[in-house]
Amino acid sequence: MIIRTWFFMIVVSLFVFCSNTLAACYFYGVGTMSGTQKFTVPVSLTLSVPPGIQNGQTIYQQNINLQNIRELMIKCDTSGQFLFDYDYLATPKPASTLNSKIYETGVPGIGIKFSASGQDFPSTQNNTDCSNTNLCKYRYGWNAISSFSLVKIADNIAAGVITGSNLPTVSYNFGQEGNLVNIYQFSFTGNIHISVPTCDISLASQHMTVQMGKHYKGNFAGVGTGTDWKDASIILINCTQFYGNSSAGDSGATFNGTSTTYSIAPNRAELTLKVLSGIEDAANGIMKIDEHPQKATGVGIQLSTTRSTSGKVDLNNPLIYPLPQDGSSTIAIPLYARYVQTKNKVQGGVANGRLEYTITYQ
C-alpha cells in the first residue's frame, strides 16, 4: 500500500486598506442658495479681427459679475481650507495647438478661454476669507467675478460665425479639497460674428510728395518756430467695415446674471514711421534734412497729427488712430509737416526729407 502525503502550502496575503476621510461639504442655511444655479450667457455681436492682430492677443473680453443673487453658505463636516475651483464641464471643440487652456470655437483662428483672479481655467485657488473653518458664507452671494476671452490662435483668420453651442460649459465650485460643491454653471446662447476687415492705400498716398514750399530765413524767429503746416495725410480706400473689438485691453461687455452690457472699442490703425533721412528730435517729431551739397542747416521737418504742435509725433512709437465704426469706405489718417528751426542760426539751401510708413490694423 502506497501512502501519499500531501502537503498544502497556504499563502495568506494580508491586504491593508487605508483611506483618508474627506470632509463632506454641502449647501447650508435657511433662505440661502440650496442648489446649483445654471446661467445661459447671451452673446450677440460682431467683432472685427484685422490681420495685424498678433497670435495670443485677446480680441474680446467679457466679464462675469453676478448681481442680485442669494446668500451662499457652504458647510463641511470638518474645519479646513476652503477653495474656489473653476473647471470645464463640456468642451464641444478641442484645445488649441497654441495653448492647451484655450479652446477652438468653430471659426478658424479664434479660441476661447476662461479666467479668474488672473488664472486660466481649470484652476483651484485658496479662499483667503475661509482658511480654517467648517462654514463659509457670503451674505450677499458669490458674485463669481471672472471673465472669458476670445483669443487669436492662428496666423490666418477666416470670417465666420461663432455659435453658442460651440462654446464651453463651465462650472464654478466651492468647498474643501476632495468635496467641492457645484455652485454655478455657465453656458452660451446666440452668435458672435467675426469679420476680417482691411483697406487699400490710395495711389496718391503710396508714393507721396509733400510740397513744403520756399521760405525765407526771416520767417523763423528762433528755435521751435516754424512755417505753416502742410497736409501729408494718408488716405485709405476700399475699406470694409470695422466693427471694433477689445484688443486694447478693455472689457467688451459684462454679464450680470440676467443680461449683457456691451462696450466695444473701435479698431485701431497703427502707423509706424521709418525716417530715412535721420532723426533730429524723436520726442518732438523732428526729422533731419536729407544730405545734399547745398542743404539747408538749422532746420528740420516736424510731423504732427494736427495743424499744431499739440499733435506732435513721437518718432520712437507707432501712431494710434481709432477707426470709424460707421462703415466708411474711405478713411484719412491725419498727418501734417512743417519746417521748424532747430539751431540758433538758419542757413538757406535744399531742405528735403524722406520717410517710409507701415500701417497695421488692430
Automatic annotation (TrEMBL):
Organism: Phytobacter diazotrophicus
Nuclease in keyword set: no
Protein's UniProt name: Type 1 fimbria pilin
Keyword Signal in record: yes
Domain Fimbrial-type adhesion: 187-362
Domain MrkD-like receptor binding, chain residue ranges per copy: 48-164
Gene3D superfamilies reported for this sequence: 2.60.40.3310, Fimbrial-type adhesion domain
InterPro entries listed in its UniProt record: Adhesion_dom_fimbrial, Adhesion_dom_fimbrial_sf, Adhesion_dom_sf, Bact_Fimbrial_Adh_Pro, MrkD_recept-bd
Leader sequence segment: 1-23
Keywords of this entry: Signal
Domain of life: Bacteria
